[in-house]
Amino acid sequence: MRRFNVRDPSFEAAFAAFLDERRGSPADVDAAVADILQAVRLEGLQAVLRFAELFDKVKLDADRLRVGPEEIARGAAQTDPKVREAIDFAAARIRAYHERQRPADQRFVDSAGVELGWRWTALESVGIYVPGGRAAYPSTVLMNAVPAAVAGVERIAMITPPGRMEPVVLAAAQAAGVTEIWRVGGAHGVAALAYGAGPIRPVDKIVGPGNAYVTAAKRRLYGVVGIDALAGPSEIVVVADGANNPDWIAADLLSQAEHDPAAQSILITDDEAFAAAVAQSVDRQIATLKTGEDARASWDRHGAVVIAPLEQSPRLVNLIAPEHVEFAVDHPELLADRVRHAGAIFMGRYAPEAIGDYVAGSNHVLPTSRAARFSSGLSLYDFLKRSSLIRCDAEAFARLAGPTLALAEAEGLPAHARSVSIRLNHG
User: CA triplet 346, 348, 354: central angle to 5 degrees?
Assistant: First the structure.
């Protein structure tokens, strides 16, 4: 864990260098992914099954690739009733939150007599990547599938690495209305969604987080399909004063550190004694976590404590542009309102980031690696597209024709100009 103090003359340069450090992306990933994508594009299902056996150590065939409705129902039924209630509770809140994002179509006639507007339509098909391996992620299913369903996406195809299908993931799929699930993961799974592979039909957009190979595959396939974002390791910044319980703040920092050795947790506080107490609590709590090995690696390699007046915290948060930021202070909005770059902002001492991960209702698929400077978290808009509407009668056309001709001729595009002039000369 690094320690910084804004009063140090070298702070700005040292902290900028810290933020620029690369986290968790092996240099040889992209070349390997390029070969995988090419194989799936040319060979289809045969390549997908070969890579499943090579990488996942699972031998599959076309008949065993899909998770059938009976298996989904059986898995959901095996889930602890309290967990199923929690899944239904979360799904309802996520559904309600994203329903409020629904935009309206618009049509109007302007002063030139031109009828203009726009119309929103849902994507036809979406692929959802749900990671496996480190843990089961029912929340990932809900956060990606529920907004797609609310948007009106007709086909939602979920892929997840093969092996044992966790009942809790199947319960989440059932709650979200996902009926198409495939036992395939990694870059080859993403390629199968993009190109199609045997019974897996191609989709229009792929969403959901994954490892470095999944992210590299999405980057390369953008244009063949749409993608939501290029997810990197998780991040949290906690802005806290000395009035907090240090154990609470330590737990919040570890809630992201436990995700991955490349995750990043940063504490900003104006109280050096409190900072020391939080650091000590982090060390104590790591020893109690079954995810402690990953949390320890994350905290030691990428964690930081910044001593700074809280008045400066919005500037520092904007510099970091984190996935999540908590303001654990008495009047959080005074600081939070000055934050421009953050995926999600949690305000108050009783708004830990974990609430947002599961049941707040807002989406937990958020920009990482400082992408909050230019992008937003997953929303209903990721599953909608907007078409412009233009209608002219003869009189409105006549009002627009002259400027159109002038611009077409200025750009040296005679056919553009003719498509206007030919109508002016009609009759």
Answer: 45
Q: Give burial (CB, 10 Å; 0-12/13-18/19+) of 26.
A: exposed
Q: Taking the complete model, does pTM exceed 0.90, yes or no?
A: yes
**H/E stretch holding 139:** helix 138-151
Catalytic status, residue 426: no
Report the first-to-last Cα separation within the chain, whole angstroms: 79
> Which residue in the block uniquely carries the two structure tokens 């194989």?
39
Domains of the chain: 29-101+120-227 (3.40.50.1980), 232-374 (3.40.50.1980), 392-424 (no CATH)
384: closest CA among 36, 119, 44? Answer: 119
Q: Of the residues 180, 323, 326, 353, which is catalytic?
A: 323
| Residue of 188, 302, 324, 364 marked active site | 324
State pLDDT tens for residues 274-333.
999 999 999 999 999 999 999 999 999 999 999 999 999 999 999 999 999 999 999 999
Q: In degrees rounded to 5, what are phi and psi of residue 366? A: -130, 160
Amino acid at 263: A
Q: What is the DSSP letter of 340?
A: -
> Over the stretch 227-269, which tens digit does the pLDDT of each residue have?
999 988 999 999 999 999 999 999 999 999 999 999 999 999 9
What CA–CA distance (Å, rounded) separates 39 from 31?
13
Q: What is the DSSP string of 246-288?
A: HHHHHHHHHHHHTT-TT-EEEEEES-HHHHHHHHHHHHHHHTT
* Residue 359 CB neighbours (<10 A): 18
Give catalytic status of residue 364 as yes or no. Answer: no
How far is residue 273 from each of residues 224, 236, 246, 330, measured CA to CA in Å? 53, 21, 10, 19
Contact indicator for 142, 172 with CB cutoff of 8 Å? yes
- Strand order of the sheet with strand 235-240? 2-5, 304-307, 264-269, 235-240, 324-328, 344-347
Tens-place pLDDT, residues 293-306: 999 999 999 999 99
